[in-house]
Amino acid sequence: MTENARRILIVEDDTSIGLGLRMNLEREGYRVQLAEDGELALHRIRDENWDLIILDVMLPKLNGYEILMAMAQERIATPVLVLSARTEDKDKVTGLDLGAEDYVTKPFSVSELLARVRVALRRRRTANRSHQLFRFGDVTVDIHTREVKKNDTPVELTLTEFNVLQALVLSRGRTMTRQQIFEAVWGKDHHGTQRTIDNFVAQLRSKLEDNPAAPAHLVTIRGIGYRLAP
Asked: In this structure, which of 32, 60, 174, 220 has its CB flanked by the most CB atoms within 10 Å?
């Protein structure tokens, strides 16, 4: 393990799961720390730099959703991979809407989890290399700082909303299918519905378009997907 190894915080109150994850991640070369309750986790998230957070939902003191809300309010953009025994779609949507990078249901295979960790870290590394400012209409998007402004006023986006917007911005006007957007945001190994993309585009339109019902920039390409028009 090197000094510049990626740092991962595991937030999990089940000691056996936490230690098992830590052992497997350290075997892959990551630097890993554990937090067993929500209050301790949020304190460490605020005070230390992490490359990825693996977050259980059901935690003592503060639950995972409360931690995600606090991170969004404080503009902490560290990617979060949610672990949960909750398998219903509404629970997954809640986690993603609150800014989670990915959502993994228990029980899970270690190999699948490691693959999703690699995808999340690779996406973060790519974003950090791309310190570029993009403009369309009266909206500016800073890929590096993950800041979005409309008429020079900051716009609050969840992590996943920003990732969908980033995929469209980096396509530089090319049409992207829903599947291409889905893979850019969640990776090829993630299983989910492409209709999720429609929901996130609708949310982006409500925040960025002057007339969300007749969008000028986040344009639907019927039967294919979406395109960001300059």
From this structure: 32
The Cα–Cα gap between 207 and 144 comes to: 20
The torsion angle over the Cα atoms of residues 38, 44, 47 and 49, rounded to 10 degrees, is -120
In CATH, which of 3.40.50.2000, 3.40.50.1580, 3.40.50.2300, 3.40.50.150 is domain 7-127? 3.40.50.2300
In one-letter notation, the amino acid at residue 3 is E
Does the pTM surpass 0.70? The reply is no
Count of CB atoms situated within 10 Å of the CB of 77: 16
For the chain, what is the total number of helices (H) and then of strands (E)?
A: 8, 12
CATH code of 131-228, in short, is 1.10.10.10
Phi, psi of 72 (to 5 degrees): -65, -45
Q: Is residue 126 pLDDT above 90, yes or no?
A: no
Rounded Cα gap, residues 123 and 98, in angstroms: 19
Location of structure tokens 């025994």: 85
- Smallest CA-to-CA distance from 123 within 150, 156, 163, 87 is with 163
pLDDT at position 156 is 92
